[in-house]
């Protein structure tokens, strides 16, 4: 009977170690010394989420082979599959900034080269003149 109880305790201990949730920690930057904050960190496998601190540090529960996403508006989403090495040491996550698309500007007026004519065309608009009169 005592050996059965010992085996049960050993089984529970081993099962607890195998299936226990660990946490990963780290820091998020933009590739330079600038910390990106706040970043939403989502453990897709465990359906858990967390926010990074103002200094870019984060902690989230994760196990080996979990998929973790790092999301911040204006940055590309970063995904990481957790390995044993990731659980043992802090992560350094680098988020890349998205490009900003600027709409095309069409220039209608073609300058003549005559400064007197061109300066009259580029003077204040009618709306701006009306506002200045008020």
Overview of the structural elements:
The protein has 134 residues and is of the alpha+beta class. The chain is 28% helix and 26% strand. The protein is built from 4 helices and 7 strands. The protein has helices spanning 2-19, 84-88, 115-121, 126-133; strands spanning 22-29, 40-43, 48-51, 57-62, 67-71, 78-81, 91-94. The strands form 2 sheets. Strands 3-2-5-6 form a 4-stranded antiparallel beta sheet, with no helix packed on it. A 3-stranded mixed beta sheet has the order 4-1-7. Strand 2 and strand 3 (48-51) form a beta hairpin. The protein is rod-shaped.
Compact description:
The chain is α+β, with helices and mostly antiparallel strands.
Q: What's the total number of strands?
A: 7
Helical percentage: 25-40%
Amino-to-carboxy terminus distance: 98 Å
Structural class: alpha+beta
Task: Please give the structural blueprint.
Elements: H1 2-19, E1 22-29, E2 40-43, E3 48-51, E4 57-62, E5 67-71, E6 78-81, H2 84-88, E7 91-94, H3 115-121, H4 126-133
Give descriptors for this structure.
134 residues; alpha+beta; 4-stranded antiparallel beta sheet; 3-stranded mixed beta sheet; 4 helices; 7 strands
């Amino acid at each position: 009977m005592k050996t059965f109880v010992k085996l049960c305790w050993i089984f529970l201990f081993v099962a607890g170690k195998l299936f226990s949730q660990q946490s990963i920690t780290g820091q998020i930057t933009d590739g330079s010394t600038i910390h990106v904050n706040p970043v939403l960190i989502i453990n897709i496998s465990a359906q858990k989420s967390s926010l990074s601190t103002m200094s870019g540090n984060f902690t989230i529960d994760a196990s080996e082979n979990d998929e973790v996403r790092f999301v911040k508006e204006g940055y590309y989403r970063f995904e990481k599959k957790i390995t044993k090495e990731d659980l043992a040491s802090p992560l350094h996550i680098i988020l890349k900034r998205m490009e900003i698309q600027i709409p095309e500007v069409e220039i209608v007026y073609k300058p003549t080269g005559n400064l007197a004519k061109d300066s009259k065309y580029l003077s204040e608009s009618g709306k701006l003149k009306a506002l200045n009169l008020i």
